[in-house]
Amino acid sequence: MKKQDKLIMRRILLTLFAVLFIGWFLFWPLNKYIESPGTADSLRSYVKIKGHPDKQKGSFMITSVYLQQARPATYLWAKLTPYNTIESKQAVTGGQNNATFDKVQDFYMQSAINEAIANAYKAAHQEVSKRYLGIYVLEIEKNSKFKKDIKVGDTITKVNGQHFDTAQGFQKYIAKRKVGSPLTVTYLHDGHQQTVTKPLVKIANFRAGIGIVLTDNVKVHTKIPVKVNPGQLGGPSGGLMFSLQIYQQLTGQDLRHGRKIAGTGTINPDGSVGEIGGIDKKVIAAHKAGATIFFAPYVKPSKLLLKYEEQHMTNYQLAKKTAQKSAPGMKVVPVSSFNDAIKYLRTHP
Q1: Which residue out of 36, 282, 320, 337 is catalytically annotated?
Q2: Residue span of the signal peptide, if any (predicted)?
């Protein structure tokens, strides 16, 4: 081979190597996820209540965290950029595939919306009721005998022909049976009722169980029709802000007084507000969107609690620290309940 041919070949190989490296650097998926500040969106377009439009100025804003699978390039970017964190795929998805993970997040969002509707309607003295559908399946344990039949996203409505009004009712009934004894489970899969009989397995505390991780599946009914469309958002953390938006529209009260008010937190049946993840990123998103008030879940800190908290700070502590450093002019307000938020808005016009 001539010297010139060797030189050409070397250049071709170097170019090919460079192209492959750039492709790997930009596109190769890593077993990591990047969490970064998402958006703060007005809830005005998310909530529609018949006969109760939102005519007040300002906005209640739902905040989000942007989640993406890391590539070498974005991994490096996340390392060099503030308010980005890198988590293992296992920590983020719990080992679930993308479709299953998205399905669970969608259910969490719908549950949050249901609780927000219930809390807001009760506070507004409007008619609202709940109907317990059954057990929503969040995860199937590896030792479960039902794993080839029941899937994540299914709802168990009966066991041995009996329906209960709470998950505890189902659990107590099953716990009285012996490991290995057959159990007939009736469940909904993609809206279709199915039945399967399999033996129970040993679960925690040596009790008999189906071998699933579960939560309640509840349907909310209101006299005044309400529709809430969360778009592409998932997870339970929008509960508090949805409840505030629904309450203001139902009552017609002007709680915002023209302000952009953001926040986060789960909402429970008793109106209490629960902590969430990534609150520092949500503060940044709210600040970029022009919010001047940010509602943060409050729990009393203790040494044991702080040991397991994100960055060893409660939601309120982390939100306040982030605002002081990177969101000047934003007031972080601690709330333990829906009523706390309403009281603050009424007393701080």
Answers
A1: 282
A2: none
Over the stretch 29-67, which tens digit does the pLDDT of each residue have?
999 999 999 999 999 999 999 999 999 999 999 999 999
Would you mind telling me the total number of residues written for the chain in this entry?
A: 349
Strands (E), 223-292: 226-228, 260-263, 266-267, 273-274
Annotated catalytic residue, options 59, 64, 237, 243: 237
- Alpha carbons 151 and 96: distance in angstroms, whole number: 12
Q: What is the pLDDT of residues 304-327, one digit of tens each?
A: 988 988 889 999 999 999 999 999
Look at residue 327 and give its three-state secondary structure: coil
pTM of the model: 0.87
- Distance, in Å, from the CA atom of 115 to the CA atom of 120, rounded to the nearest integer, reads 8
CA–CA dist 262, 53 (Å, integer)? 20
Q: Give 87's strand partners.
A: 33
Q: Where are the beta strands (DSSP E) in the chain?
A: 32-42, 47-49, 59-69, 85-88, 128-140, 155-159, 182-189, 192-199, 201-202, 208-209, 212-222, 226-228, 260-263, 266-267, 273-274, 293-297, 331-335
Spatial separation of the C-alpha atoms in residues 298 and 128, rounded to whole Å: 28
124 Cβ partners below 8 Å, 6+ apart?
247, 250, 251
CA 248 vs. chain centroid, Å, equals 23
The sign one gets for the Cα dihedral 157, 163, 164, 170 is negative
Burial 77-113 (b: 16+ CB within 10 A, else e): ebeeeebbbeeebeebbeebeeebbebbbbbbbbbbb
Angle at which helices 279-288 and 315-326 cross, to 10°: 40
237: annotated active-site residue: yes
104-125 pLDDT per residue, tens: 899 999 999 999 999 999 999 9
Q: Which of 100, 65, 81, 77 is nearest to 30 (CA)?
A: 77
With contact defined as beta carbons under 8 Å apart, do 103 and 109 qualify? no
